[in-house]
Design a protein that fits this description.
alpha/beta; two-stranded antiparallel ribbon; 40% helix; globular
Length: 485
Protein backbone atom coordinates (compact mmCIF):
# COMPACT_ATOMS: atom_id res chain seq x y z
CA UNK A 1 0.00 0.00 0.00
CA UNK A 2 1.48 3.37 -1.05
CA UNK A 3 2.25 6.16 1.36
CA UNK A 4 0.05 9.23 0.99
CA UNK A 5 1.91 12.33 -0.15
CA UNK A 6 2.59 14.77 2.64
CA UNK A 7 1.01 18.22 2.23
CA UNK A 8 3.45 20.89 1.18
CA UNK A 9 4.84 23.13 3.89
CA UNK A 10 3.44 26.64 3.70
CA UNK A 11 6.76 28.06 2.48
CA UNK A 12 6.62 25.62 -0.47
CA UNK A 13 3.20 26.73 -1.67
CA UNK A 14 2.65 29.23 -4.44
CA UNK A 15 1.66 32.83 -3.85
CA UNK A 16 -1.60 32.19 -5.71
CA UNK A 17 -2.40 29.23 -3.46
CA UNK A 18 -1.45 31.07 -0.27
CA UNK A 19 -3.55 34.14 -1.14
CA UNK A 20 -6.58 31.92 -1.78
CA UNK A 21 -6.03 29.90 1.41
CA UNK A 22 -5.69 33.03 3.55
CA UNK A 23 -8.82 34.52 1.99
CA UNK A 24 -10.72 31.27 2.67
CA UNK A 25 -9.41 31.21 6.28
CA UNK A 26 -7.78 27.82 5.68
CA UNK A 27 -4.49 29.22 6.95
CA UNK A 28 -3.54 32.49 8.63
CA UNK A 29 -1.10 35.09 7.43
CA UNK A 30 0.78 34.63 10.71
CA UNK A 31 1.23 30.92 9.96
CA UNK A 32 2.50 31.73 6.47
CA UNK A 33 4.97 34.35 7.67
CA UNK A 34 6.23 32.08 10.45
CA UNK A 35 6.78 29.27 7.94
CA UNK A 36 8.79 31.58 5.69
CA UNK A 37 10.76 32.92 8.66
CA UNK A 38 11.64 29.34 9.64
CA UNK A 39 12.78 28.66 6.09
CA UNK A 40 14.87 31.84 6.09
CA UNK A 41 16.50 30.78 9.36
CA UNK A 42 17.30 27.39 7.82
CA UNK A 43 18.67 28.49 4.43
CA UNK A 44 19.73 32.13 4.53
CA UNK A 45 22.86 31.69 6.68
CA UNK A 46 24.26 29.58 3.85
CA UNK A 47 23.02 31.62 0.86
CA UNK A 48 23.05 35.21 2.22
CA UNK A 49 20.18 36.18 -0.06
CA UNK A 50 18.22 38.36 2.39
CA UNK A 51 20.19 40.91 4.38
CA UNK A 52 17.69 42.67 6.65
CA UNK A 53 14.91 40.49 8.05
CA UNK A 54 12.80 41.90 10.91
CA UNK A 55 10.56 39.08 12.19
CA UNK A 56 8.64 41.18 14.73
CA UNK A 57 7.70 43.72 12.10
CA UNK A 58 6.59 41.07 9.60
CA UNK A 59 4.55 39.18 12.21
CA UNK A 60 2.84 42.41 13.27
CA UNK A 61 1.87 43.01 9.62
CA UNK A 62 0.60 39.43 9.43
CA UNK A 63 -1.56 39.86 12.54
CA UNK A 64 -3.11 42.97 11.03
CA UNK A 65 -3.75 41.01 7.83
CA UNK A 66 -5.55 38.30 9.79
CA UNK A 67 -7.62 40.90 11.61
CA UNK A 68 -8.72 42.28 8.23
CA UNK A 69 -9.79 38.78 7.13
CA UNK A 70 -11.73 38.27 10.34
CA UNK A 71 -13.45 41.64 9.93
CA UNK A 72 -14.62 40.78 6.42
CA UNK A 73 -12.66 43.65 4.89
CA UNK A 74 -12.00 43.93 1.18
CA UNK A 75 -8.78 42.00 0.55
CA UNK A 76 -6.16 42.66 -2.07
CA UNK A 77 -4.96 39.94 -4.48
CA UNK A 78 -1.79 39.26 -2.44
CA UNK A 79 -3.31 39.58 1.02
CA UNK A 80 -0.98 38.01 3.56
CA UNK A 81 1.60 36.83 1.02
CA UNK A 82 5.28 37.49 1.91
CA UNK A 83 7.50 39.32 -0.58
CA UNK A 84 11.12 40.49 -0.45
CA UNK A 85 12.17 44.04 -1.40
CA UNK A 86 15.53 44.76 -3.05
CA UNK A 87 18.11 46.81 -1.16
CA UNK A 88 18.15 49.46 -3.90
CA UNK A 89 14.42 50.16 -3.53
CA UNK A 90 13.00 52.64 -1.01
CA UNK A 91 11.11 50.96 1.83
CA UNK A 92 10.10 53.16 4.73
CA UNK A 93 12.36 52.71 7.75
CA UNK A 94 15.00 50.74 5.86
CA UNK A 95 18.24 52.08 4.42
CA UNK A 96 18.36 51.99 0.63
CA UNK A 97 21.90 50.65 0.74
CA UNK A 98 22.25 49.53 -2.87
CA UNK A 99 25.08 47.38 -1.51
CA UNK A 100 27.18 50.44 -0.63
CA UNK A 101 28.41 51.19 2.90
CA UNK A 102 28.04 54.95 2.38
CA UNK A 103 24.30 54.48 1.84
CA UNK A 104 23.72 52.31 4.90
CA UNK A 105 22.83 54.86 7.57
CA UNK A 106 19.93 56.88 6.17
CA UNK A 107 16.55 55.15 6.44
CA UNK A 108 14.07 55.84 3.65
CA UNK A 109 11.36 58.29 4.65
CA UNK A 110 8.75 56.59 2.48
CA UNK A 111 8.06 53.71 0.14
CA UNK A 112 8.80 53.56 -3.56
CA UNK A 113 5.62 53.42 -5.62
CA UNK A 114 6.12 49.71 -6.38
CA UNK A 115 6.37 48.94 -2.64
CA UNK A 116 3.23 50.97 -1.98
CA UNK A 117 1.46 48.94 -4.66
CA UNK A 118 2.55 45.67 -3.09
CA UNK A 119 1.38 46.80 0.35
CA UNK A 120 -1.93 47.95 -1.13
CA UNK A 121 -2.38 44.49 -2.64
CA UNK A 122 -1.96 43.01 0.85
CA UNK A 123 1.57 41.64 0.43
CA UNK A 124 3.79 41.57 3.52
CA UNK A 125 7.42 42.71 3.04
CA UNK A 126 9.70 40.07 4.55
CA UNK A 127 13.37 40.89 4.21
CA UNK A 128 15.58 42.96 1.91
CA UNK A 129 17.24 41.12 -0.98
CA UNK A 130 20.93 41.60 -1.71
CA UNK A 131 22.45 43.24 -4.80
CA UNK A 132 25.94 44.16 -6.01
CA UNK A 133 27.23 47.61 -5.16
CA UNK A 134 25.25 50.21 -7.11
CA UNK A 135 23.26 47.29 -8.62
CA UNK A 136 25.59 47.38 -11.62
CA UNK A 137 26.83 43.80 -12.04
CA UNK A 138 25.48 40.44 -13.20
CA UNK A 139 26.80 39.06 -9.90
CA UNK A 140 25.65 39.69 -6.33
CA UNK A 141 28.36 40.54 -3.84
CA UNK A 142 29.43 43.70 -2.04
CA UNK A 143 31.58 44.75 0.88
CA UNK A 144 28.58 45.83 2.96
CA UNK A 145 26.35 42.74 2.87
CA UNK A 146 28.66 40.05 1.47
CA UNK A 147 28.20 37.45 -1.28
CA UNK A 148 24.93 35.80 -2.28
CA UNK A 149 25.16 32.21 -3.50
CA UNK A 150 23.19 30.36 -6.14
CA UNK A 151 21.35 27.51 -4.35
CA UNK A 152 21.83 25.24 -7.38
CA UNK A 153 25.61 25.70 -7.54
CA UNK A 154 27.57 27.92 -5.16
CA UNK A 155 30.31 28.38 -7.74
CA UNK A 156 27.90 30.04 -10.19
CA UNK A 157 26.36 33.50 -9.97
CA UNK A 158 22.77 33.73 -8.76
CA UNK A 159 22.59 36.55 -11.28
CA UNK A 160 22.61 40.25 -10.72
CA UNK A 161 21.63 42.66 -9.79
CA UNK A 162 18.52 41.02 -8.27
CA UNK A 163 20.54 37.98 -7.20
CA UNK A 164 19.33 38.05 -3.62
CA UNK A 165 15.75 37.99 -4.88
CA UNK A 166 16.31 35.02 -7.21
CA UNK A 167 18.35 33.01 -4.69
CA UNK A 168 15.80 33.51 -1.91
CA UNK A 169 12.92 32.49 -4.18
CA UNK A 170 14.65 29.34 -5.38
CA UNK A 171 15.42 28.38 -1.77
CA UNK A 172 11.81 28.93 -0.67
CA UNK A 173 12.35 31.91 1.62
CA UNK A 174 9.45 33.88 0.11
CA UNK A 175 7.02 33.06 -2.71
CA UNK A 176 7.48 36.46 -4.41
CA UNK A 177 10.23 39.04 -4.83
CA UNK A 178 10.46 42.57 -6.17
CA UNK A 179 13.35 43.49 -8.44
CA UNK A 180 14.37 45.99 -11.09
CA UNK A 181 15.95 45.69 -14.51
CA UNK A 182 18.01 47.93 -16.79
CA UNK A 183 20.34 45.30 -18.29
CA UNK A 184 18.80 41.97 -17.33
CA UNK A 185 18.71 42.47 -13.56
CA UNK A 186 15.34 40.72 -13.14
CA UNK A 187 15.44 38.29 -16.05
CA UNK A 188 19.02 36.98 -15.75
CA UNK A 189 18.91 36.22 -11.99
CA UNK A 190 15.57 34.49 -12.45
CA UNK A 191 17.06 32.26 -15.14
CA UNK A 192 20.21 31.56 -13.11
CA UNK A 193 18.11 30.27 -10.20
CA UNK A 194 15.31 28.53 -12.10
CA UNK A 195 12.47 30.97 -11.40
CA UNK A 196 10.34 33.37 -13.47
CA UNK A 197 11.33 36.99 -14.07
CA UNK A 198 9.09 39.68 -15.58
CA UNK A 199 10.38 42.87 -17.14
CA UNK A 200 7.26 44.95 -17.92
CA UNK A 201 6.88 47.71 -20.47
CA UNK A 202 8.49 50.94 -19.29
CA UNK A 203 5.82 52.98 -17.50
CA UNK A 204 3.53 50.09 -16.54
CA UNK A 205 4.92 49.92 -12.99
CA UNK A 206 5.90 53.28 -11.57
CA UNK A 207 9.60 53.81 -10.93
CA UNK A 208 8.89 56.79 -8.67
CA UNK A 209 10.59 56.83 -5.28
CA UNK A 210 11.37 59.34 -2.53
CA UNK A 211 14.73 61.11 -2.82
CA UNK A 212 17.77 58.92 -2.19
CA UNK A 213 20.96 60.16 -0.54
CA UNK A 214 24.57 59.08 -0.23
CA UNK A 215 26.71 59.97 2.77
CA UNK A 216 30.05 61.29 1.47
CA UNK A 217 32.97 63.02 3.20
CA UNK A 218 31.41 66.26 1.97
CA UNK A 219 28.04 65.48 3.53
CA UNK A 220 24.83 63.92 2.19
CA UNK A 221 24.38 64.05 -1.58
CA UNK A 222 21.01 63.56 -3.26
CA UNK A 223 21.37 61.00 -6.03
CA UNK A 224 20.15 62.05 -9.46
CA UNK A 225 19.64 59.30 -12.00
CA UNK A 226 20.68 59.51 -15.66
CA UNK A 227 18.18 59.57 -18.55
CA UNK A 228 18.55 55.88 -19.31
CA UNK A 229 17.32 54.95 -15.83
CA UNK A 230 13.99 56.67 -16.49
CA UNK A 231 13.73 55.55 -20.12
CA UNK A 232 14.98 51.97 -19.74
CA UNK A 233 14.79 50.79 -16.12
CA UNK A 234 11.71 49.04 -14.73
CA UNK A 235 10.43 47.55 -11.50
CA UNK A 236 8.98 44.06 -11.72
CA UNK A 237 8.28 40.74 -10.02
CA UNK A 238 10.18 37.50 -9.70
CA UNK A 239 8.23 34.38 -8.78
CA UNK A 240 8.45 30.60 -8.73
CA UNK A 241 5.58 30.11 -11.21
CA UNK A 242 4.17 32.01 -14.17
CA UNK A 243 0.77 32.29 -12.47
CA UNK A 244 2.39 33.92 -9.43
CA UNK A 245 4.37 36.28 -11.65
CA UNK A 246 1.17 37.31 -13.42
CA UNK A 247 -0.62 37.91 -10.12
CA UNK A 248 2.27 40.02 -8.80
CA UNK A 249 2.56 42.01 -12.03
CA UNK A 250 -1.11 42.93 -11.89
CA UNK A 251 -0.76 43.94 -8.24
CA UNK A 252 2.31 46.07 -8.95
CA UNK A 253 0.87 47.83 -12.00
CA UNK A 254 0.77 51.49 -11.00
CA UNK A 255 -0.02 54.12 -13.63
CA UNK A 256 1.73 57.10 -12.08
CA UNK A 257 2.53 60.39 -13.79
CA UNK A 258 5.25 61.22 -11.23
CA UNK A 259 7.33 58.69 -13.17
CA UNK A 260 8.72 60.54 -16.23
CA UNK A 261 7.61 57.70 -18.51
CA UNK A 262 4.50 56.73 -16.55
CA UNK A 263 1.20 56.25 -18.34
CA UNK A 264 -2.24 57.23 -17.01
CA UNK A 265 -3.82 53.88 -17.92
CA UNK A 266 -2.70 50.57 -19.40
CA UNK A 267 -3.92 50.18 -23.01
CA UNK A 268 -6.40 47.41 -23.62
CA UNK A 269 -5.12 44.43 -25.55
CA UNK A 270 -5.83 44.66 -29.25
CA UNK A 271 -6.13 40.91 -29.61
CA UNK A 272 -5.42 38.90 -32.73
CA UNK A 273 -7.67 36.84 -34.98
CA UNK A 274 -5.41 33.82 -35.43
CA UNK A 275 -2.70 31.83 -33.70
CA UNK A 276 0.14 33.81 -32.22
CA UNK A 277 3.39 33.58 -34.17
CA UNK A 278 6.60 32.98 -32.26
CA UNK A 279 9.79 33.94 -34.09
CA UNK A 280 12.83 32.13 -32.69
CA UNK A 281 16.04 34.20 -32.64
CA UNK A 282 18.88 32.03 -31.36
CA UNK A 283 21.75 34.37 -32.17
CA UNK A 284 22.66 37.78 -33.54
CA UNK A 285 25.92 36.47 -34.98
CA UNK A 286 28.28 37.84 -32.34
CA UNK A 287 28.79 34.81 -30.07
CA UNK A 288 28.12 31.06 -30.16
CA UNK A 289 25.63 29.55 -27.74
CA UNK A 290 26.52 26.90 -25.21
CA UNK A 291 24.86 23.64 -26.38
CA UNK A 292 22.65 23.61 -23.27
CA UNK A 293 21.34 27.07 -24.21
CA UNK A 294 20.31 25.84 -27.68
CA UNK A 295 18.66 22.80 -26.13
CA UNK A 296 16.58 25.02 -23.86
CA UNK A 297 15.45 27.24 -26.75
CA UNK A 298 14.57 24.16 -28.83
CA UNK A 299 12.59 22.67 -25.96
CA UNK A 300 10.69 25.93 -25.43
CA UNK A 301 9.92 26.21 -29.16
CA UNK A 302 8.64 22.63 -29.28
CA UNK A 303 6.35 23.20 -26.29
CA UNK A 304 4.92 26.35 -27.87
CA UNK A 305 4.29 24.49 -31.11
CA UNK A 306 2.53 21.75 -29.14
CA UNK A 307 0.37 24.45 -27.53
CA UNK A 308 -0.81 25.70 -30.92
CA UNK A 309 1.59 28.58 -31.50
CA UNK A 310 2.95 29.09 -35.02
CA UNK A 311 6.71 28.78 -34.51
CA UNK A 312 9.25 29.98 -37.08
CA UNK A 313 13.04 30.19 -36.97
CA UNK A 314 14.70 33.49 -37.89
CA UNK A 315 18.32 33.63 -38.97
CA UNK A 316 19.17 36.49 -36.66
CA UNK A 317 17.40 39.81 -36.27
CA UNK A 318 19.58 42.85 -37.05
CA UNK A 319 17.25 45.09 -35.06
CA UNK A 320 18.11 43.24 -31.83
CA UNK A 321 21.80 43.27 -32.64
CA UNK A 322 21.69 47.03 -33.10
CA UNK A 323 19.71 47.48 -29.88
CA UNK A 324 22.27 45.49 -27.87
CA UNK A 325 25.06 47.60 -29.34
CA UNK A 326 23.18 50.82 -28.53
CA UNK A 327 22.78 49.69 -24.92
CA UNK A 328 26.56 49.69 -24.57
CA UNK A 329 26.64 53.29 -25.79
CA UNK A 330 23.70 54.84 -23.97
CA UNK A 331 24.00 53.05 -20.65
CA UNK A 332 27.77 53.49 -20.53
CA UNK A 333 27.76 57.18 -21.29
CA UNK A 334 25.01 57.82 -18.75
CA UNK A 335 27.05 55.94 -16.14
CA UNK A 336 30.14 58.04 -16.81
CA UNK A 337 29.12 60.97 -14.54
CA UNK A 338 28.66 58.47 -11.69
CA UNK A 339 32.27 57.28 -11.85
CA UNK A 340 33.62 59.81 -9.31
CA UNK A 341 31.03 58.67 -6.75
CA UNK A 342 31.79 55.00 -7.50
CA UNK A 343 35.49 55.69 -7.03
CA UNK A 344 34.78 57.54 -3.79
CA UNK A 345 32.41 55.13 -2.05
CA UNK A 346 32.27 51.94 -4.17
CA UNK A 347 34.04 48.71 -3.29
CA UNK A 348 36.94 47.23 -5.23
CA UNK A 349 34.73 44.74 -7.08
CA UNK A 350 32.41 47.35 -8.58
CA UNK A 351 35.35 49.53 -9.59
CA UNK A 352 36.98 46.59 -11.39
CA UNK A 353 33.70 45.46 -12.96
CA UNK A 354 32.90 48.93 -14.26
CA UNK A 355 36.40 49.22 -15.74
CA UNK A 356 35.68 46.03 -17.67
CA UNK A 357 32.29 47.39 -18.71
CA UNK A 358 33.82 50.60 -20.05
CA UNK A 359 36.56 48.66 -21.86
CA UNK A 360 33.97 46.46 -23.58
CA UNK A 361 31.94 49.52 -24.59
CA UNK A 362 35.08 51.26 -25.85
CA UNK A 363 35.73 48.32 -28.18
CA UNK A 364 32.41 49.19 -29.86
CA UNK A 365 32.29 52.98 -29.61
CA UNK A 366 35.79 54.23 -28.80
CA UNK A 367 37.17 55.54 -25.52
CA UNK A 368 35.10 58.73 -25.46
CA UNK A 369 32.16 58.80 -27.87
CA UNK A 370 31.26 62.27 -29.04
CA UNK A 371 28.11 64.14 -28.07
CA UNK A 372 26.96 63.78 -31.68
CA UNK A 373 27.34 59.98 -31.44
CA UNK A 374 25.36 59.94 -28.19
CA UNK A 375 22.53 62.09 -29.57
CA UNK A 376 22.41 60.03 -32.76
CA UNK A 377 22.19 56.90 -30.62
CA UNK A 378 19.11 58.19 -28.83
CA UNK A 379 17.53 59.12 -32.15
CA UNK A 380 18.26 55.66 -33.55
CA UNK A 381 16.75 54.10 -30.44
CA UNK A 382 13.42 55.76 -31.21
CA UNK A 383 13.48 54.33 -34.72
CA UNK A 384 14.22 50.84 -33.42
CA UNK A 385 11.32 51.06 -30.94
CA UNK A 386 8.98 51.83 -33.84
CA UNK A 387 10.41 49.04 -36.02
CA UNK A 388 10.13 46.41 -33.29
CA UNK A 389 6.56 47.43 -32.45
CA UNK A 390 5.67 47.18 -36.13
CA UNK A 391 7.16 43.67 -36.21
CA UNK A 392 5.51 42.40 -33.05
CA UNK A 393 2.19 44.24 -32.85
CA UNK A 394 -0.31 42.17 -30.87
CA UNK A 395 0.12 38.83 -32.63
CA UNK A 396 3.82 37.98 -32.58
CA UNK A 397 6.40 37.13 -29.94
CA UNK A 398 10.14 36.60 -30.04
CA UNK A 399 11.76 33.59 -28.37
CA UNK A 400 15.45 34.00 -27.55
CA UNK A 401 18.06 32.60 -25.20
CA UNK A 402 18.53 34.30 -21.86
CA UNK A 403 22.27 34.41 -22.36
CA UNK A 404 24.65 32.62 -24.71
CA UNK A 405 26.26 30.95 -21.68
CA UNK A 406 25.12 29.07 -18.60
CA UNK A 407 25.15 31.04 -15.31
CA UNK A 408 28.60 32.59 -15.12
CA UNK A 409 31.23 31.41 -12.69
CA UNK A 410 31.35 33.69 -9.64
CA UNK A 411 33.22 36.98 -10.29
CA UNK A 412 33.88 36.12 -13.94
CA UNK A 413 33.80 39.85 -14.70
CA UNK A 414 36.75 40.57 -12.40
CA UNK A 415 39.37 38.54 -14.24
CA UNK A 416 40.94 38.98 -17.65
CA UNK A 417 39.58 41.77 -19.81
CA UNK A 418 38.83 39.32 -22.63
CA UNK A 419 36.59 37.24 -20.36
CA UNK A 420 34.74 40.33 -19.13
CA UNK A 421 34.21 41.37 -22.75
CA UNK A 422 32.78 37.96 -23.61
CA UNK A 423 30.22 38.27 -20.82
CA UNK A 424 29.15 41.57 -22.30
CA UNK A 425 28.66 39.91 -25.71
CA UNK A 426 26.95 36.80 -24.32
CA UNK A 427 24.30 38.93 -22.60
CA UNK A 428 22.86 40.38 -25.81
CA UNK A 429 19.36 38.96 -25.13
CA UNK A 430 19.32 40.84 -21.83
CA UNK A 431 20.72 44.16 -23.02
CA UNK A 432 18.77 44.47 -26.29
CA UNK A 433 15.42 44.68 -24.52
CA UNK A 434 15.83 47.50 -21.94
CA UNK A 435 17.13 50.03 -24.42
CA UNK A 436 13.85 49.62 -26.33
CA UNK A 437 11.55 49.40 -23.30
CA UNK A 438 9.59 46.29 -24.36
CA UNK A 439 8.18 43.63 -22.02
CA UNK A 440 10.02 40.34 -21.64
CA UNK A 441 9.76 37.26 -19.45
CA UNK A 442 12.36 34.62 -18.67
CA UNK A 443 10.98 31.22 -17.82
CA UNK A 444 12.86 28.10 -16.68
CA UNK A 445 12.82 25.34 -19.30
CA UNK A 446 15.06 22.47 -18.19
CA UNK A 447 17.86 21.28 -15.97
CA UNK A 448 21.11 20.63 -17.76
CA UNK A 449 23.91 18.99 -15.79
CA UNK A 450 22.21 20.15 -12.59
CA UNK A 451 21.80 23.80 -13.63
CA UNK A 452 18.53 25.51 -14.57
CA UNK A 453 18.46 26.83 -18.12
CA UNK A 454 15.71 29.15 -19.34
CA UNK A 455 14.44 31.03 -22.36
CA UNK A 456 13.20 34.56 -22.95
CA UNK A 457 9.96 35.73 -24.55
CA UNK A 458 9.61 39.31 -25.85
CA UNK A 459 6.30 40.92 -26.79
CA UNK A 460 4.94 44.17 -28.15
CA UNK A 461 4.55 47.15 -25.84
CA UNK A 462 2.02 46.52 -23.03
CA UNK A 463 1.50 42.94 -24.26
CA UNK A 464 2.59 41.39 -20.96
CA UNK A 465 -0.46 39.11 -20.85
CA UNK A 466 0.36 37.68 -24.27
CA UNK A 467 3.95 37.06 -23.19
CA UNK A 468 2.84 35.43 -19.94
CA UNK A 469 0.39 33.19 -21.80
CA UNK A 470 3.29 31.82 -23.83
CA UNK A 471 5.45 31.45 -20.74
CA UNK A 472 2.61 29.50 -19.11
CA UNK A 473 2.47 27.18 -22.12
CA UNK A 474 6.19 26.47 -21.75
CA UNK A 475 5.89 25.89 -18.01
CA UNK A 476 2.83 23.62 -18.36
CA UNK A 477 4.58 21.28 -20.79
CA UNK A 478 7.84 20.87 -18.95
CA UNK A 479 9.09 19.25 -15.77
CA UNK A 480 8.94 21.11 -12.47
CA UNK A 481 12.23 22.87 -11.83
CA UNK A 482 12.57 23.10 -8.08
CA UNK A 483 15.10 22.27 -5.40
CA UNK A 484 12.42 20.34 -3.51
CA UNK A 485 10.14 19.00 -6.28
Amino acid sequence: MGTAAQPAALWQRTATDLAAAIRAREVSAVEVVRSCLDRIEETNPRLNALVDVRPDEALADARRADEAVAAGADLGPLHGVPVSIKVNTEQKGYATTNGVAAFAHRAAEGDAACVTALRRSGAIPLGRSNSPAFSLRWFTTNDLHGRTLNPWDHGRTPGGSSGGASSSLAAGMTPLAQGNDIGGSIRFPAACCGVVGVRPTVGRISDWAPPAFAETPDGPVELDFPPTVHACAVQGPLARTVADARLALRAMTTPDLRHPHGVPAIPERAGGTGPVTVSVVRSIGTVDNHPAVDRAVSDAAARLSDAGYKVEELDGLPLLAEAARLWSLLITEDLRPMLPLVEQVGDAAIRTALAGHFAAAAAEWGERPTLETYITGWARRATLVTRLQELLGSGRLLLTPVCAELPFEQDADLGEEARAGRLFTAMWPMTAVPVLGFPAVTVPVRLDDGLPVGAQLIGGRFEEELVLDAAQAIEDRGPAISLWA
